[in-house]
Amino acid sequence: MTSLALPNAAPDVARITVILGTGGTIAGTAASAQDSVGYRAAQLGVAALVAAVPALQGLALEAEQVAQIDSKDMSAAVWQALARRAAAHLARPEVGGVVVTHGTDTLEETAYFLHRVLAPTKPLVLTAAMRPATALLADGPQNLFDAVMLARQRDACGVMAVLAGEVFAATALRKCHTFRLDAFEAGDAGLLAAVENGVLRRFREAPAAVALGLQTIAAAPDAWPRVEIVLNHAGADGRLVDALVAQGLQGLVLAGTGNGSLSASLEAAALRAQAAGVRVLRASRCAHGALLGDGSPLPGAGALSAVQARIELLLQGLLARPG
Ligand code: SIN
Question: Which of 105, 107, 140, 286: CA 20 to 30 A from 71?
Fold first, then answer.
């Protein structure tokens, strides 16, 4: 499966683009236009975000509010609802693509989750903003416009994100800055494309993907497995892992140092957890690179970030459920 159209492929003017709102800074407001930090996320509805972009008027758009949250509070319930609504719209023959407005803080997790569950054959484009809608120079309207332009590409497919004119595969998206407008990067994988003045300029294809399907995430959200991330650091102590296992932990991601290395204490506790039936994956706390085989008895997560590895364990846990 390729994920992007040919460079400058024609937009699909005949079909509808559905915009699903979930909140975030893109829907945030501040008391003062100079304030890009002291704002409240998730204040404006998705219809208001669309109405604020004159260039979108007259296009075949539908808007639907799926959630209204600060994405730091993203939950299994919202993920489940979002995946279901996105899948329902993507299945409509008259819909060409779906856009999701979201917060930046967990954007990479939602993108990866939707990629693994849906791997759609039409474009599913996430976007967000670093500044609230009330800012002097808000980035949300341009990002939303670019996302709609990408979702209207006739031959595009797969889960992507667009921010600051840059198009990311769901697998490569990483938030890397606390404040800058171009707060995301794609690491070694590189960008998929750029959106320049509403036109797509393609750089590479996204990796092929197979959807796990909505049935994988059908369990009630409070029955989803508990999967935690524990970071290795100077003096990291395995008693934290022992305490989590005693609480019924089902999955453990270790954000190791460098090539996924762990302190002796943390490694011993992770091995105890694994022996007790907890699914364990080692990732790296480094921003870039993949884990290389080092003979560890604790499986490595390859090029997945720690938060992506957590989603893998969540999905593995759900897939392993009886019935
Ligand atoms: C959020 O993630 O919902 C708030 C922060 C942001 O969107 O930049």
Answer: 286
Whether residues 189 and 237 fall in one domain: no
> What is the span of the domain harbouring residue 236?
225-319
**Tens digit of each residue's pLDDT (9 = 90 or more) over 88-132:** 999 999 999 999 999 999 999 999 999 999 999 999 999 999 999
Q: How many CB atoms neighbour CB 14 within 10 A?
A: 10
Where in the chain does DSSP place strands (E)? 16-23, 61-69, 95-101, 123-127, 158-163, 166-169, 174-175, 184-185, 193-196, 199-202, 227-231, 251-256, 279-284
What is the distance in A from the centroid of ligand 1 to the CA of 282?
A: 27
128 lines ligand 1 (CB under 6 A): yes
- Number of Cβ within a 10 Å radius of residue 231: 14
Please give the number of the atom of ligand 1 that sits closest to the Cα of 183.
8
Residue 178 annotated to the active site: no
Q: What is the distance in A from the centroid of ligand 1 to the CA of 178?
A: 10
Same domain, 281 and 182: no
Ligand 1 pocket, residue 109 CB under 6 Å: no
Per-residue pLDDT tens for 148-179? 999 999 899 999 999 999 999 999 999 999 99
Mark whether 123 and 193 lie in a shared domain: yes
Number of structural domains, the chain? 2
pLDDT at 206: 83
From the CA of 208, how far away is ligand 1's center (Å)? Answer: 29
Q: Is residue 9 domain-resident?
A: no
Protein residue closest via CA to atom 7 of ligand 1? 103
Does some domain include residue 216? no
